[in-house]
Amino acid sequence: MTPRVSVIVVNHRSAGEAAACVASLREAFARESLAGEVILVDCDSGPEEVLALAALHADAEAFLPDNRGYSGGANAGIEKARASRLVISNADVMFLPGALTALLAEIEHPKVGAAAPLCFWDAGGRLRLPADSAAGFFGELGLKHFAPFARRTLHLWEHGGAARHLPGAVLAARRDVFDTVGRFDERFLFEYEETEWEDRVRATGLRLRFVPRARVRHLFARSAARNPGTERRREVSRRLYRERRYGRLGRALLEHAAARPPRAVEAAVLGEPLVRARAGAWLAVSTNASLIPFAGAPLDADFRLPEDILASLKPGPLYLRVFRAADGRPLETFVWERR
Fold it and tell me: Residue 224's pLDDT is what?
């Protein structure tokens, strides 16, 4: 029987997380009465990792002899997929009840090119990961204003809707969309592959949809921290994307701006990552001084950065901004140093 949905899980040195992802998918198939298959792709993680992945007994496997990146892994999975509805996922994702059903319902609309879920960062399901990027030349320059960006982010988290770009941890799309716009560009070694693909989707007139009723947990930044080549691969992808979208001059201007010392931010120093509750307010959390983009949580109760998030953070400053939910206006900004 042909499955209704093929879920492609792309792994690189994350066998433990991949096992949890596959387990959550099998539970989802049973709970949501979905005829689905799991296609497990590995990008040259080594023989021990491959043995651990093989023990998961996915419906199909593609254990690649070289690291083709997330883009190449996703493409290899698409080759194996049998369904007309595709979900492409990082290995460090766990699908929560109803997520697959909500994503599949969204992409049934012929004008929708792709859909993505709301991603929670912490085990408690309070801290939401960004719903959209600060895409665009001025966004990358750090010249976007916080308040309108915060309003837009809250709207997507709470109501969903059309987005300029979708986070790439989980993407759902029909096979005919890939047939129309092509697959992921494997010259993007790490990150930006989904951004460039989404540019092509939007260029055809199709919409990108953020779906907050579809919820997953994404163990953001954990697997990347294990791979020493991550920063080099990210830089290659960043340069390629910027030059393709903004030209050589635009890329050079962005690189020059990034090389300058960061602007000073007026922020109260915290001795611990704790912010007190405040009615009608949310908290933005980011390693970027501009706080664009940001992870966020409602301040209906005191917020302390969870231990499971602390474990994934690199040493350095972490910025926390209290803002008004009604209009995104910043109320207070803090900085805490991760040692």
Answer: 60
